[in-house]
Amino acid sequence: MQDNERISDSDELQRSLRQIVQLLDKQRLVEELVHRQDMPRHGLVETLVHKQHVAELQKLLDELDPADIAHLLEALPLEDRIRVWDLVKAERDGEILLEVSDAVRESLIAAMDTGELANAVGQLDTDEIADLAPDLPHEVIQDVFTRLSPEERDQLRAALSYPEDTVGALMDFDMVTIREDVTLEVVLRYLRRMDELPDHTDKLFVVDRLGVIQGELPLNRLLLHDPEVMVAAVMEDDIVSFEPDDDGREAAQAFERYDLISAPVTDANGKLVGRLTVDAVVDFIREESSAEVLSLSGLREEEDIFAPVWKSLKNRWTWLGVNLVTAFIASRVIGVFEGSIEKLAALAALMPIVAGIGGNSGNQTITLIVRALALGQISLANARQLFAKEIGIGMLNGVVWGSLVGLFAYFFYQSVSLGLVMTLAMILNLMLAALAGVFIPLAMFKLGRDPAAGASVLITAITDSGGFFIFLGLATLLLIKG
Question: pTM surpassing 0.85?
Answer without folding.
Answer: no
